[in-house]
Amino acid sequence: MNRLKTKECVKTKPNSKKEWVAITYPQDFSDLGRGLGEQTILRLECMVTAYKDDGYNISHIILACGIGPDRKEYPYQTQPFATMMKEWLVKEGTFSANMIHCSSDDNVWNCIDVTLEIIRMISDLGLPRNILIVSTGLHIYPRMWVTWKILCPKSRGWTLEFIPAWDGKVGILHELAGTIKYIPLSLWYR
User: CA-CA-CA-CA torsion for 50, 53, 56, 59, nearest 10 degrees?
Assistant: First the structure.
């Protein structure tokens, strides 16, 4: 966690009384699926920083994403991505296991499916609609920003805040293509 002291993950100071449900998306594995990759850990570290250093009152964390569909690429993944992220957060020590909720759907994999699963879980669990989306900067802007703004507008009682980790590595073309793909999908599911 020491390396986060030099990174800026949050630019605004939140209302510390508001309860936030924090979410993030996994990005990469290490060692052919045995562990989380550095980009996924960066996102989790930013969530910790948002709580510890930046004053976000995170009351719950929702994690979704299951077993990778490509067993040849990740032959050593034995548990869902969401479970791996939860274990990392609990081991880090900031968040207790009972405040972290993981999807039980191991087939949820791409970002639109993960987002829809997170929204469903928030509704099913009766959690606050104050959502703190933590991810790498180019993943949030534009793709996840557009997706969440379409699916969960303020007019429907949602409050959204975005925490970008600008040190993250995501391909610009990949994210722009994803944004173009996710706009009609988000409108369809809305």
Answer: 80
